[in-house]
Amino acid sequence: MWFPRLATDRVLRACPVEAPFVLTLKQNNTDKLYCLNTCAERAGLHRGMRFADARAFCPDLVSRPARPEQDARFQAALRRWATRYCPWVGREGEDGLVLDVTGSTHLFGGEEAMLDDMRQRAERAGLALRLGLAGTRGAAWALAHFEEGIAAPDELRQALKDLPVAALRLDAETDTALQRLGLRTIGNLAAAARAPLARRFGQDLITRLDRAMGDYPETVAPEADPPHYGVRLTLPEPVGLVSDVMAGASRLLDALCARLRENEAGARILCLTLRRVDQGSHQIELRLAAAMRDPARILRLFERGISEVDAGFGIDRMRLEAILVEPLPVEQISITARARANGLDDLITRIGTRIGLENIQRFLPVDSHIPEHGFVLAPAAHSAPGGGWISSRPRPIRLFEPEPVIGPVTSSTTGEGAGTFPPERFSWRRMVFNTARSTGPERIAPEWWIDNDHWRPHWRSGVRDYWRVETRQGRRLWLFFTPQSPRWFVQGEFA
User: Rounded to two decimals, what is the model's pTM?
Assistant: First the structure.
């Protein structure tokens, strides 16, 4: 199954365009055509063409940037859809699928009927599809790309002999070299002496020819489906006591955590669904502060949610699913360190179930000498404590926005020396303070190499000279002076 316009069909299914349409991808610092629709191909455009040249040929061209990662997810969805025809389905390049339909064609009325069903379903979905069916994987690829149809096992060589050598999945350089030698079709290549071809082009050319002809085996390797982390339990009799529901949840957690352990994964979000006999259901969602797979720890965290459920006439079915899973590899750890970490994670989870995990935050250090930008607030459940604040000068325990010193300001120096030392007497927050001792100055300059509009207006005036001031009233304040516009501010207070 070859989807020649997979990328553009994916985009146009959501937003149809009745005009030449292309997807562009930057290659070697140049935008080139990545995929085209039929209108663009009729206009003379082709893949790999420079986008600037394409606009010159077709002024009404509509374009969008390509998203190869989204195309890969769409191809994966098509692979899952194709399993309706056979269980052995694998990917073929970036825009194709390969199916081993041995023993399944009779379920659809034969080979022709199965291919017709594929075409009809692809057409209804808005996808261009070319099909090739043969006894070998290489021959099926050649038919799908160059001559759509079916090749019977006894007619395989006859069906391939007139196809170009590019049908053997060769690179452009080898294809051009073979054509210069006069070997333009697969029949010409099969009739040529193998030893000279192997010496000049390598054994890979001979292997590809043998695979297409069926002389060398080539299997279909289907992709394994991702593991599903969901378990269910049907009870013989309805239950309504919290202890009975907790016992059922314990059995589900044992099975789910065993599956997580096999795949070295841990659950971050769990959903427990309790189905009542009156067809009603309750869902209990548990968001964990860290990836876990310990059933005993998780069961304790479910207790509060289960105790609030109205069992009605009884609960007869239970289902537990890990909605969000993260890698959790096995690691060598100490008993004391892990117990301490587990206790903190459980505490964050318990509080987060009531107020939300996003509302529990921690301070993390930032590599910046600007006082108000030396830290950042991050959710505790999605960040790990690390690093520390390193400063040659002490920092106040309380930090706030700069507040100007107002009212009477007297200093021991005036004129050109103003600001050399903190004022002897000043007013702040409607309180008058007298300076008893001061330490400084510590000059801090703006981070001119960072263009951040959030903090730049506060530092646009220039440098700041910070002082640690101990007042006779007992307050220990952090003041700074701006030489470029002489003025004093208070920005912090020491404990």
Answer: 0.60
